[in-house]
């Protein structure tokens, strides 16, 4: 996460055995939180939350695939897009938001990118670039995403399908970047058989 000036604070996702579910917790020195933090939300999905708004807002996905938005210091969260969000990321300065949406109960192989500065929504089909041909449609869906501090790049993990040297198909997680000016996808780490 980008650095934010002010008293020490942090946010984390954890399994809370007292409620048998995942929860979001906060430690905010300025709020007088105890050293082990305070639980601020329950029923969270195991996916990366995004802090935005100069550290005042958090966005996260719930266990029922809704988008939750809340003020970190005085919740409660508000919920939108019930059942439609697989994962998401907000850029540090709140210029962009990226979503993997769900259709018919499954994640799609597209990114929905909201550009708040231009008031636009761009759908990016997830395809792997190749050097000597057209991009291939081997990406099932994106997982965890994070914007660079300068908001020029979105880095995302994706479940990709490939073929090993012996011709055997396999699926593995790989890393990609999305250029926010051109919406061009580049491969950081390709899918590798036996590595996930």
Give an overview in words.
Strands 8, 9, 10, 11 and 12 form a 5-stranded antiparallel β-sheet that branches. The protein has a 4-stranded antiparallel β-sheet with strand order 4-5-6-7, with no helix packed on it. Strands 13-14-15-16 form a 4-stranded antiparallel β-sheet, with no helix packed on it. Strand 9 and strand 10 form a beta hairpin. Helices cover 0% and strands 52% of the residues. The two termini are 24 Å apart. It is built from no helices and 16 strands. By secondary structure, it is mainly beta.
Name the helicity range.
under 10%
Average the pLDDT over all residues and give the rounded result: 88
Per DSSP, the total helix count is: 0
Distance between the termini: 24 Å
Q: Quick one: biggest sheet?
A: 5 strands, antiparallel
Instruction: Specify the overall morphology.
Output: globular
Radius of gyration: 18 Å
Order of helices and strands: EEEEEEEEEEEEEEEE
| Low-pLDDT segments | none
Structural class: mainly beta
Proportion of residues in extended strands? over 45%
Number of strands: 16
């Amino acid at each position: 996460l980008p650095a934010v000036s002010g008293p020490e604070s942090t946010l984390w996702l954890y399994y809370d055995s007292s409620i048998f579910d995942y929860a979001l917790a906060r430690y905010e020195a300025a709020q007088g939180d105890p050293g082990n933090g305070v639980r601020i939300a329950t029923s969270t999905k195991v996916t990366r939350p995004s802090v935005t708004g100069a550290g005042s807002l958090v966005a996260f996905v719930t266990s029922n695939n809704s988008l939750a938005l809340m003020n970190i210091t005085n919740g409660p969260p508000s919920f939108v897009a019930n059942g439609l969000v697989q994962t998401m990321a907000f850029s540090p300065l709140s210029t962009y938001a990226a979503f993997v949406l769900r259709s018919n109960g499954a994640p799609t192989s597209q990114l929905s990118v909201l550009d708040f500065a231009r008031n636009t929504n761009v759908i990016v089909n997830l395809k792997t670039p190749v050097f000597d041909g057209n991009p291939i449609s081997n990406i099932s869906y994106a997982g965890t995403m994070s914007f660079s501090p300068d908001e020029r790049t979105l880095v995302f993990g994706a479940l990709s399908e490939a073929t090993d040297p012996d011709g055997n198909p396999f699926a593995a997680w790989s890393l990609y970047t999305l250029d926010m000016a051109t919406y061009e996808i580049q491969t950081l780490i390709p899918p590798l058989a036996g590595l996930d």
